[in-house]
Design goal:
alpha+beta, 4-stranded mixed β-sheet, 4-stranded antiparallel β-sheet, 10 strands, binds flavin-adenine dinucleotide
């Protein structure tokens, strides 16, 4: 959002988080995470909590600030400057917390949501399985009730934060006899006997955030840890996709903004053929193009945030959220890629962080639902909107010379 449109409260929140990003996150942390000397930066979560920056949208009684999405996306953009790992770890309390806040009992909120926002309990979200992530409802992890516990078995992979998480939000098949959409349950699983996390991935970027593979072997989970109804994960999933995708979208803008700023300053100093490279259109127009795209992506993210704040969840909201995730992450990829081009060879080295940001940005079009899956949602919801309504303003189809030639309107 433009500074000129921010409320004083939004401006001061942004200042708070900018201070955190500037003062409380060391350069060494970023370098050590990228070098995988650090596998999970727990202290970072605790520092965020100490500044009361986790779970901003949740009610104060559960440790949040009772703010809305319009505020959270502002904060996410600032945190996004730190790269995808720290942005994702910042987002996980918002994502997992959403499930607890919307569907959890008072007891679960007291026990878990309060601890999450206080930075006492770290979380991960475990949806994706080795057999596939896009086809989420094909999940094969199983849940079987035995008295007042469920027995959980299965595997999840690519789980950010897994290495350090105290608590996992897990989706598993609780009814083998009905269609997938009515067979999956969501529940909170504490790190306990039978939960094993393995560090198996050599990631291109987004390192140091504890991305692991998780095995659940006969894990006993209290029935009271169920989120929503048994077999009701479809509803939970539909709600959680809002924070999951909005956090990706808003974080991507911060990451791209950082790369654009670095390359713009560089273009003002670097000389070739006796002049600053910014004086070549080939360079300065890339900056103009990147800035325009970034402003457009930010506008879409903020508009979507305000729509969620106004109407909650719906097919239309899921379309907007998918558009925002797709457009912001594709924009981020293009902007960081152009930033590297603007900087020439030095941009490809670790003298500047552009190469790290590029490696991070690449993931953003894949995770939290690939951008192909975003397209699937967008077209699906749009067809529904169009086909369920008659033309809203006027019958534009009739504004053609030969519009009455019904015999020419052949569809089969
Ligand atoms: C570093 C990293 C961190 C991650 N963090 C998490 C996490 O914290 N928690 C979690 O649960 N998951 C996480 N993921 C998983 C991520 O969300 C999935 O990788 C992603 O959803 C894609 O699933 P997949 O890898 O199984 O690809 P697949 O589902 O196998 O897809 C392969 C290709 O087919 C395309 N495709 C599939 N179905 C369709 C369709 N219907 N229409 C068009 N194209 C289609 C996809 O777009 C993709 O291009 C992470 C992944 C990575 C790499």
């Amino acid at each position: 959002m433009s500074d000129y449109l921010m409320t004083p409260g939004q401006r001061s929140l942004r200042e708070e988080v900018r201070n955190f990003v500037r003062e409380d996150v060391s350069r060494q942390l970023l370098l050590d995470m990228d070098a995988e000397k650090i596998h999970y930066p727990r202290q970072y979560i605790e520092d965020l909590a100490a500044k009361h920056l986790l779970g901003l949208r949740f009610p104060p009684e559960w440790g949040g600030r009772g703010l809305n999405w319009a505020h959270e996306v502002l904060v996410l953009e600032e945190i996004g400057v730190l790269g995808a790992s720290l942005a994702c770890l910042y987002s996980l309390p918002s994502i997992v917390g959403e499930a607890i806040n919307c569907f959890g009992s008072g007891e679960l909120k007291e026990r878990y949501l309060k601890s999450i926002t206080a930075g006492k309990m770290t979380v991960a979200e475990a949806l994706t399985e080795p057999r596939g992530g896009s086809d989420f409802f094909g999940a094969t992890a199983t849940l079987k009730q035995e008295g007042d516990v469920y027995i959980l078995n299965g595997q999840k992979r690519f789980i950010v934060g897994a290495e350090g998480a105290d608590l996992f939000l897990v989706y598993a098949r609780s009814n083998p006899d009905v269609s997938s959409h009515k067979a999956i349950s969501a529940l909170l699983v504490e790190r306990s006997e039978g939960v094993e996390v393995q560090h198996v991935y050599g990631l291109m970027g987004t390192r140091g955030g504890g991305t692991g593979r998780v095995y659940f072997r006969d894990v006993q989970v209290p029935v009271r840890n169920l989120i929503g109804q048994e077999n009701g994960a479809y509803e939970v999933f539909n709600q959680m996709m809002l924070p999951e995708r909005m956090t990706s979208a808003a974080g991507a803008i911060g990451l791209a903004r950082a790369a654009l700023e670095i390359s713009t300053r560089y273009a003002d100093r670097r000389k070739a053929f006796g002049q600053k490279v910014r004086e070549f259109e080939g360079v300065s127009f890339k900056i103009a193009e990147s800035l325009t795209r970034l402003d457009a992506a930010r506008a879409l993210v903020h508009e979507t945030a305000r729509i969620i704040d106004t109407i909650g969840n719906s097919g239309y909201v899921r379309r907007m959220v998918s558009e925002a995730k797709k457009f912001a992450t594709e924009t981020a990829w293009a902007v960081v890629n152009d930033a590297m081009q603007i900087m020439g060879g030095i941009g490809y080295t670790n003298v500047y962080p552009i190469e790290r940001l590029l490696r991070d940005a690449r993931l953003m079009t894949i995770w939290t639902g690939t951008n192909e899956i975003m397209n699937l949602v967008i077209q699906h919801e749009y067809f529904k909107e169009i086909l369920l309504t008659t033309p809203a303003v006027r019958d534009v189809e009739g504004d053609a010379q030969n519009a009455d030639a019904e015999g020419e309107k052949v569809f089969e």
